[in-house]
Amino acid sequence: MRRAGRLLASTFLEISELVRPGAVTEEIDKAAERAIRRGGARPAFKGYSRSGSGRFPATVCISIDREIVHGIPSRRRLEEGQLVGIDCGLEIDGWYSDMACSFLIGEVDAVRQKVWNVTREALYKGIEQAKAGNRISDISAAIQNWVEDNGFSVIRDLVGHGIGSHLHEDPAVPNYLSRQGDPPLRPGMTLAIEPMVSAKDWKMKVLHDGWTAVTVDGSPTGHFEHTIYITDGEPEILTMLEDNTDPWNVICNSR
Fold first, then answer.
1. Strand partners, 106
2. At a CB cut-off of 8 Å and minimum separation 6, what does 253 contact?
3. Which of 107, 164, 188, 239 could form a disulfide with 99 if both were Cys (CB 3.0 to 4.6 A apart)?
4. What is the number of domains present in the chain?
5. What phi and psi values does residue 211 have, to the nearest 5 degrees?
6. How far apart are CA 110 and CA 202, in angstroms?
7. If pLDDT is split at 50, 70 and 90, which confidence band does 133 have?
8. Which CATH number do you get for residue 31?
9. Cα-Cα-Cα-Cα dihedral of 160, 28, 71, 240, to 10°?
């Protein structure tokens, strides 16, 4: 899973150079697929099947402003002022990694900037609680408290998840406090922690394409994700670059 995580992190670093005003989302998707296959892996999202939605047609999800997750790449171009989430997963030798990053496209307004900041910070608040002896609810509460203390909402109909030899495994990792299905964290567990944050209300709906989830009130949203390994000590982020640096720090600091 470290191999899978490092390849996925390097893929994001590569495609981040393309995420600019005027970029065609379909071209970003093709670049991601090339990078993944060049590394000897398989895109985990492409062909992913979900009941009632058919198979996902792309390597990455690209979700713009009110789109929370699962946006389908197309000939649509990115525009100045947008908040864009990109989510991607891959599989190599039977093991998976999953990660997501939100991008600010050029100059954005204060609301989108704050959503970006708070969502990114919420991810690390959750990771801090991913320790043996804690429970899933400790991760959830840390994310929810940070987001709501900053005046925003966490999306409730979509959650993080276990990950390993399958892309999606138990347990669910909600971004809000829920005592239902609240297992203890044990060394060896691997989780995809992914806060999804709305600037206003958390209610969502899915568009007619069967995949794209959007906020009902049109609020812009943010999405950050890492794949995490629970150890006897501090949590290990598996979706890191080869030199063990966090790709989000590299990408975000370079923009």
1. none
2. none
3. 239
4. 1
5. -125, -50
6. 19
7. very high
8. 3.90.230.10
9. 10
